[in-house]
Records
---
Amino acid sequence: MKELELKYGCNPNQKPSRIFCREGELPIQVLAGRPGYINFMDAFNGWQLVKELKKATGLPAATSFKHVSPAGAAVGLPLSATLKKIYWVEDVEELSPLACAYARARGADRMSSFGDFIALSDVCDASTAFLIKREVSDGVIAPGYTPEALEILKQKKKGNYNVIQIDESYVPAPVECKDVFGITFEQGRNELVVDDALFSKIVTNNQELPQAARMDLAVALITLKYTQSNSVCYAKGGQAIGIGAGQQSRIHCTRLAGTKADNWFLRQSPQVLSLKFVEGIGRADRDNAIDVYIGEEYEDVLAEGAWQRLFLEKPPVFTREEKRAWLNQMSDVALGSDAFFPFGDNIERAHKSGVKYIAQPGGSIRDDHVIETCNKYGMVMAFTGIRLFHH
């Protein structure tokens, strides 16, 4: 198949629309559904991300994409009892490593992942397909599917769920092109390999960068490689826990990603874990309620007449002081940035979310101030010398 006609482009008024290869055949098969333009944009960016994550870590990887940026990305490390609970998978007896990767990728920022497109590094098994089936999602791309997994996925959306199989041996041309306003842009593909060599130039007083932190920094940088810039990523335990994408100001990226990382950790607090929801409440409604409860607009779910629709009993207010006390326990978080930090304010914000390890290109005229701020908190910062813009 050299080309595939699509229903429309980014919007229904943008016709005609298709994907095609200038040379050779498309490296994909559509096994179910009818993926659209944005679906394929998410699918191909996501596939590159998980393929590189697996190469860098040796572990199965998954990502959850929305609007051509990842909402989450992770490798297949086992889940603690707490993570199983906040990712809504505590009822599943056996989780394969790939299923753990997907649960992490989908669960880190469940609000953003609603209606996502999934990419998997390995053949999708029944364990992973079962988790996918019960989430609101547009589709999945993987190098293959077991017969049982494919049957499970074909039951989703009355058989209209998008299931794409990609040839994992496919290698794109070294030069890529795209048209904007009738003008063709051409550039060499970003073939940067993220490995330990990127973290060899440590510029802070603290020089200790343990292997677990190196893996988290690799997760962060590979995620940023496929995130619309400007972008910042917080990572911990083999997964992205907060991604700030597409912001014009880097401090806004750091704040946005930091807030998402804080929410991820707040969801693990006793106040949230003890919430008692009414029977039969939907997964998305639970996510929305938790997001509001831990935010500044908590009165929206605690008001009389509102809480009864969500909870069996009215939860106490999760005060700002209580939230800060819980967040102060957050530690050993890794942070990556796709370009240099121009000011130390980014480090100050990162510190509030437990960041200890940082990888960024360096090269700002205020590098000395950024390094000084890291030293104030005993952080470890590596200058990679590599920018990772993606548009």
Note: The chain has a mean pLDDT of 96.
---
Amino acid sequence: MKKLFSLMALVAVFALSFASLAFAETFELRISTTQTETSMIYAGLKAAADEINEKTNGNVKVTIYPSSQLGGEEDMIDQAIAGIGIAVLSDAGRMSNYVKDIGIFNMAYFVENYDDGLKVMNTATFKKWTDELVNQGLRILCFNYYDGARSFMQNKEVKTPADLKGVVTRTPSAAPYNASIKAMGATPYNIAWSEVYNAIQTKMIDACEVQYTSAVSTHIYEVCKYVAKTEHINLFNCLVCGEAWFSKLPDEYKKIILEACYNNGIKNAREIEAAQADLEKVLIDNGMTITKVDKEEFKKAAASAYEELGWTELRKAIYKEAGL
């Protein structure tokens, strides 16, 4: 009889477990990115998605849509704010449309490298910005995906800011980018990254400023001959979703998502850092000439962008807070 009761109790436990699994609420998150499926950063996003799917037993189903398959970045952010289960791989420039000062992260020569950027993220000022984004309906899942440093790529050699005069250069449509590129001498032009190859090929624009990972994955070396190695913007990417969607998750799932995004962001960033020399070799092997520039000249020119956007004193304050 005792064995019978034990068996019945065990059956009851299994029944409850299966019922719990059967009726567990499920959530869907679609990640939208401009990155191609062959890009390094896509692999980092995929690692985070797989971890989330596994640790939530599939109750948070994460699917990645590369190459802007779901639509433009701004439209996706609007949908996320509206409560749809969408996360967007974005950056500080676009987040500055909601919290202006966070845009300083995408200014020319704001930080020298990835580790300096992490120091800024540990400041109270940065936390204030992310809290303000929550009030605007946006939840930063992580801000530590990294795609390397951006440099100018075009069909003439560029050594100084003066060489960029009149050079129509594609840059993302956000004030920090536009102000920085203009300050360094070029003429900023805003089109989607997916249109850049054809735009340069047809001479609609003269140049782009972009990181090595994207230059390689989109074969930009087929339409550009020179890299001016300015490394003017260290491109940090954030994965952002709507607070309305995120707030509906059980706390356990929130923790899993945040940890998976952050940890895989760090791992992927270190891999991209380590790949820079190999990526540059791909560009050279495909006919591009790498021009080393005097970065101090470009830094000096870029300073006027901070003045234009009212961030000169903010920059000093953040450096002090972050110990830079």
Note: The mean pLDDT is 92.
